[in-house]
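for the writeup, i need someone to sanity check this before i put it in the appendix. the sequnce is what the collaborator sent (i think, or maybe the updated version? ugh). structure was predicted straight from it, no edits. if anything looks off just tell me and ill rerun, i have time this weekend
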Amino acid sequence: MRSYATAQNIGGRGIQCDAAAVRTGADGIRAYAVLDGIGTSETIRDWTRTMAARLATRAARRGDAESALRSLYEEIAADPDRQDPYERRYLPSAAAVVAVTAPGKPLVVAWAGDSRAYLLHHGIAHRLTDDHNLRRVYPPTATHPEGGNRNMITSYLGAVLTDEDAQAGYGHPAIETATHDIADGDRLVLATDGAYEPHEEARHDLFVELDDEQLPAIARRFVDLAVETSRKSRTEDEQRFVDNATVLLAELTA
């Protein structure tokens, strides 16, 4: 039986532009990647699927989440068309998160964008990532309770900012990493914003939503409930804006 599962719901969009990939390397290394394509088109869908597979493969071979994401980020950014501000607007991009596990080693996560990683441990969903978006740059305050626009992401796969550029402009590097010790029975969760935001807004307990049942069933229920919750919060005219939702769940061993 697989120790991981993925599930997707297309939401109100006509095309599924999220992607997930899992790859296994030498010495028990395993890499998990989730990408959230920015925009909706067949080109974005195909590119995002390719990049998810490439990122997971690279991370599994290297055994290093940050190195894999950084090398792919820099490879894409080096494309001459990406360096042209006009051309770049029409090229596919995606928020990306990748996690690597290996026997006897801590979990390592790297990300660019607002796709998230959580670790389910001892009844709590520990969030491991910090979103790259304008809400992080301009946090909610008493006078501006919404803060910055969380849908405007400040780093992503397909951007060209260096860590220094992003730090100067947004207060965070282009790529960030987190490391966390794990115990047998912990669960890793990678999710796009279309999957986690509706749960967060409805104040659902993520541990409760993701800790029961077999992995495929709970993953399916999670994305379906996210989309259902999002739909209920919108008018009929806004149903087409319900986002794609993707989640990847993995049982971990120390």
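The first strand starts at residue 4 and ends at 9. The two ends are 18 Å apart (CA to CA).
thx in advance!!
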